Amino acid sequence: MQPRRIEVVRTHVLEAPLSEPFAWSFNATSVRGACLVEIVADDGTTGWGECYGPPRLNAAIVAAFRPLLIGGDPLATDVHWLTLYNQFRDQGQKGLVVTALSGVDIALWDLKGKLLGAPVKQLLGGAFRSDVAAYATGTYRRGTGEARDYICDEVRGYVREGFGAVKLKIGFGVEEDLRLIEAVRETIGPDCGLMLDANHGFDAIEAIELGRRASRHDIGWFEEPVVPDDLGSYEEVRRGQPIPVAGGECEFTRWGFREVLRRRAMDIIQPDTCAAGGLSECKKIADMATAFGVRYVPHVWGTGVGLAAALQLLAVLPPSPPRTRALQPLLEMDRSEHPFRQAVLTQPIEHRGGRVAIPDAPGLGVEIDRGALDRFRVGEAAV
Ligand code: CA
């Protein structure tokens, strides 16, 4: 193959209003947005990525990356990652610089796979699995109605759809949360997995109180009990209550997770592939987690592009512990309203009875519907 050059780096800022706003412990939204990254090689081959977080800010940072990428080798994913990271390191070790870098890195992996005619999972070392069990994320708060009623209806629907586990949003106050947890456990029955996500709505004292009292409901993990920048409180929550502690959707890069792992601040880490540094970095973080004996369950909350990236990573997560019937990683499937989550793909990624097949086609294994991008685009594309 002839050496190739990166010729175009462009972003697509997409946005759509929701039919009804929804809320979690510290915020609410009435729109869904995304920043997709498109990188084109000189032969016209195109790769796609997605950045997690505020779309316009991500797009602005990708624009700042552009001169460092144009003309470069589209196969040199690690070289580009470190070049961009080092360039912005002094002000960009966490947050938006890394979320923007994640979208670029995912697009480069998709492009590399398409140029080499291989799925990303093969290029990352090979797939340990061809499909993965999914759990349902939802149970956001609405502006109207009794939360306990509509949330129990919602989780009943997930069980009926075949999901083996659901994640419940809490962080609205210990007593209210405990009443809801009890009602949801009763609704889904004893055989369905139940996880809790506080979106860092507690301090350590409240989180320990909630964890102690909720543990009798057989809880899979307690996600983001406290703010992400306070690992000391994470350590306290781990020590002070019996439910495994999860977190990491607001943590970044191998250096950020080095601290989490070294301090054993979490039992399960949840890097977001579109935020923590992309496929290059998340594979490294996953291998670090294996070395520390900490479980890895990716956070997923974007469009089908982010979902496809998470699936390629899920394929290569090492089985751990290494027994014949190894524990298998789980896919997070966000079931909240998202007008273009699947519309951006020519073929949606869906579950069947709670399991999702990992695409085999080159790159991320998905194709983009440019018509959908045109419909939902609110910013940049022409570069
Ligand atoms: Ca979460």
Each distinct ligand: calcium ion
The assigned CATH architecture of the largest domain is Alpha-Beta Barrel
Kindly report the name of the CATH homologous superfamily of the largest domain: Enolase-like C-terminal domain
Look at the structure and give the mean pLDDT: 96
Q: Low-confidence parts, pLDDT < 50 over ≥5 residues?
A: none
Q: What is the structural class?
A: alpha/beta
| Radius of gyration, taken over Cα atoms and rounded to an integer in Å | 20 Å
**Helix-strand string:** EEEHHHHEHEHEHEHEHEHEHEEHE
| Percentage of residues assigned to helices | 25-40%
Number of domains: 2
The outline comes out as globular
N- and C-termini, Cα separation:
27 Å
**Would you report the number of β strands?**
13
- The helix tally amounts to 12
Q: What is the CATH C-level name of the largest domain? A: Alpha Beta
The share of residues in extended strands comes to 15-25%
Major sheet summary line = 9 strands, mixed
CATH topology of the largest domain: TIM Barrel
